[in-house]
Amino acid sequence: LWVCTSEGLVRFDGREFRAFGPEQGLPSRHVEDFIASRRGGFWMVTEEGVCRIPAESRTGDACRLLDIDSRQGEFQADCLIESSTGTVWVATNHALYRVSAGARKLIQVQVDLTGLEIQSLTEGPAGNLLLGTGNGLYAWREGGKARPLTGSNAQFGVNQMLVEGARIWMATTAGLYRLDWRGGDALPAMERIPTPGMPTAF
């Protein structure tokens, strides 16, 4: 089990916790996100940027930050994914980036979300990207336009998402929602899920 904290990346082996930070080769102690790569190793987002930990790395090896062509905004949690095709995407609150083919650079891609902050990121049922923003959920594919899935004037922020087949679960500032993907240009069927005894905002 790996846990991202502001005091380092923490590993729990079932018996004890061990923290990893700059002393063990990480670029920063503040770790925002961490995922396993299909190609081996791991991807990590810290407050300083994004780095890849190769499968053959040993404790103490430096985790080199990827170059970035134009940093905009702050890196954050729940905004790092490796798609089913192997493309790695990462978002700040103000921009979306694709990791280059050689895994050495973050390349900014243009997404028409003017005035909206990206709060979460995942792969959608159709292989597109789902962008959770401060004003609802958007579907986007490179070269196309971002399409609102929760209406054009959603009054909630999407903080986390989970995709199960054609179903999308959203933890939002207005509670828990379920969307059923219909494909094409049709808007998903959306339903707010009652959560008695739980906070209405996630």
Give the number of DSSP strands.
Answer: 19
Mean of pLDDT = 89
H/I helix tally: 0
Tell me the fraction of residues in β-strands, as a range. over 45%
| Oligomeric status | single chain
Major β-sheet, in short? 5 strands, mixed
Cα-to-Cα separation, first versus last residue: 23 Å
Radius of gyration: 18 Å
The string of secondary-structure elements, in order, is EEEEEEEEEEEEEEEEEEE
Q: Helix proportion of residues, in percent?
A: under 10%
Q: Give the overall form.
A: globular
- Unreliable runs: none
Strand order of the largest sheet: 7-11-10-9-8
Describe the protein.
The protein has 202 residues and is mostly beta strands. Helices cover 0% and strands 47% of the residues. It has no helices and 19 strands. Strands 7-11-10-9-8 form a 5-stranded mixed beta sheet, with no helix packed on it. The chain has a 4-stranded antiparallel beta sheet with strand order 12-13-14-15, with no helix packed on it. A 4-stranded antiparallel beta sheet has the order 16-17-18-19, with no helix packed on it. The model has no long low-confidence stretch (mean pLDDT 89).
Layout: helices, strands, pairs:
Layout: E1 2-5, E2 8-12, E3 17-20, E4 31-36, E5 42-46, E6 49-53, E7 67-68, E8 75-82, E9 88-92, E10 96-99, E11 105-109, E12 118-123, E13 129-133, E14 136-140, E15 147-148, E16 158-164, E17 167-172, E18 175-180, E19 189-193
Parallel strand pairs: 7-11
Antiparallel strand pairs: 1-2, 2-3, 4-5, 5-6, 8-9, 9-10, 10-11, 12-13, 13-14, 14-15, 16-17, 17-18, 18-19
